[in-house]
Design a protein that fits this description.
This protein is mostly helical. The protein is built from eight helices and two strands, in the order ααααββαααα. The protein has a two-stranded antiparallel sheet. The mean pLDDT is 91.
Length: 223
């Protein structure tokens, strides 16, 4: 991408950390770590192919950054979104319910789930290994309030067969934005629904090990 033109004619075996350091130092601290990670992967590939014996990035320091506070959606705003979906866009109701109450990843998990994965009688949702991001099957428990929202969806004529999300990711994104706008939410944090679920569930139940199993994280440290 022509970011480091001075390296274009140089063999990887002839490239050292002394060549990279002045180039990386020209990048603002907040943007330095990403190209360093890309270069690290690139040079590791070279080591695997036998082009060089040491990764020059290991001799350089990544920029340390303070962890960001996890942002969540307030219960009041969640209630507004659910009510708006119930009245104006019924198909969004299962999407919000299973994302906010179970932390199911909206894209890549929930968009692949089917209604046959939802067992209201036994109060569980089965995240099949083929659907799970971590390729491990899990069974988040359905809470009473979530069952009530799903029942309200069914009673109003909501489709309970086939895929739970019956539209493309782009259309789903547009519909969610329209719902946000209708209830006055202007800021949507990264992984807002999943982070809200994990934060509120842990505050209520105080069982981080069970939360790790239900959310599909790989460890308590990740959580």
């Amino acid at each position: 991408m022509d970011r480091f033109p001075s390296l274009h004619d140089r063999l990887v075996s002839d490239t050292s950390h002394r060549d990279l350091e002045p180039l990386l130092n020209k990048i603002v601290p907040g943007g330095r770590n990403l190209p360093m990670r890309h270069l690290r992967v690139f040079f590791n590939y070279g080591i695997k192919r036998g082009y060089l014996t040491e990764n020059p990035i290991t001799r350089l320091d990544f920029v340390e950054s303070s962890p960001k506070e996890t942002e969540v959606i307030s219960p009041e705003d969640v209630a507004k979104m659910l009510e708006a979906a119930l009245k104006k866009d019924l198909g969004l109701l299962p999407y919000f319910t299973l994302s906010f109450f179970y932390g199911i990843r909206p894209i890549g998990e929930l968009t692949l789930l089917k209604w046959s994965d939802v067992d209201l009688q036994n109060r569980i949702v089965m995240i099949r290994s083929a659907v799970s991001k971590t390729k491990r099957r899990r069974f988040p428990e359905l809470s009473e309030n979530a069952i009530a929202w799903l029942e309200a969806y069914r009673q109003r004529g909501g489709v309970c067969e086939g895929p739970i999300i019956a539209c493309s990711e782009r259309v789903l994104y547009t519909r969610r934005q329209q719902n946000q706008g209708a209830v006055g939410i202007t800021h949507w944090p990264n992984s807002a629904m999943r982070h809200s679920y994990c934060s509120y569930w842990l505050a209520m139940h105080k069982d981080i090990n069970k939360l790790v199993l239900q959310s599909g994280h790989t460890s308590v440290d990740t959580m």
